[in-house]
Amino acid sequence: MPELELRPLGSSNVHVTSLGLGTVPLSGFNAAVSYAEFEATILAGYESGIRYFDCAPMYGFGKSEHFLGHALRVNDLRKDVVISTKVGRVLKPASRTAKLETVYGIEWIDPLPFLDTYDYSYDGIMRSFEDSQHRLGLDHIDVLLVHDVGRAWHGDQSEFYWNQLRASGYRALDELRSNKCVSAIGLGVNETESVIGVSREFSIDCALVAGRYTLLNHEPLNSAFDELLARNVSIIAGGIFNSGILATGTGGSIATYDYGKVPSAVLDRVREIEAVCREFKVSLPAAAMQFVYAHPAVATLVMGAKGSKEVMQNVASINEAIPPGFWSALTTAGLLPATAPLPAAA
Hints:
About 40% of the residues lie in helices and about 20% in strands. With about 350 residues, the chain is an alpha/beta fold. The strands form 3 sheets. It has an 8-stranded parallel beta barrel with strand order 3-4-5-8-9-10-11-12, surrounded by 5 helices. α1 (about 35-45) packs parallel to α11 (about 310-320) and α10 packs across α11.
């Protein structure tokens, strides 16, 4: 199997493989996961050439960081991989902390006994970073992302948290990068608007953007990705299956779109894409992955996986041969905009 391509994150010295492995599904998202299953999935990713792994305090309320750090340590993998985690949340004991009501209503199965609180201030970011170091068992974290800052997550409270970040949070991020505690700084969000806003105020290297640029969502082509490319802000593309519909297709019994029921208009559009896939004998996941990775602003695709089988499927999809005529057919059918960057012919 071909080696996974390496691309830089902005102007930092961090290079990531074309595929990264996200740990949300391994942290108790809709299913219990043992440490043995977690470790086996991480090792499957590593053996397949993946050298970038993403986690966050929110995932399993500390479980993803605990499990990932241990797996890296006992298997002597740390020196070979890039790790990203996130700030903006501080975990506190569940017995003395009120549960947050969130836009996605995530219920972690068998999490650690903590709950998250938001804090984008200098002190909050520094505490979150140091807590993550302890959970991961690492003295250096390669990529640090500010988690869920913006209107998509916080709604009417977004300006309050923006002001925290502006007033002192940027200073914490600058210190951590200047002092080489981290190598790259960015955002981890479900929108492009906040990435544009931060990049105009503060120098960031990258942004993990989930579900905003996919075979179904092309809004960043209107100007956002061009501006980020000009500012040398690399995109870590997450959620490229729109939470499921572009992985399972319309025949999947549990297909979802952005973690909810699939709208009829989306189902119709996916059926049209599937028809072109059948004509050219292309798998839908391969089309979804390779379309996003073709954009020059995108450095890597961070893909969640519930086990080793899904890791192998993702690696096979990024390497699947797709004839150039397939992309032309999608564009001619009006399923892709004419301005979309397309994969180069092999």
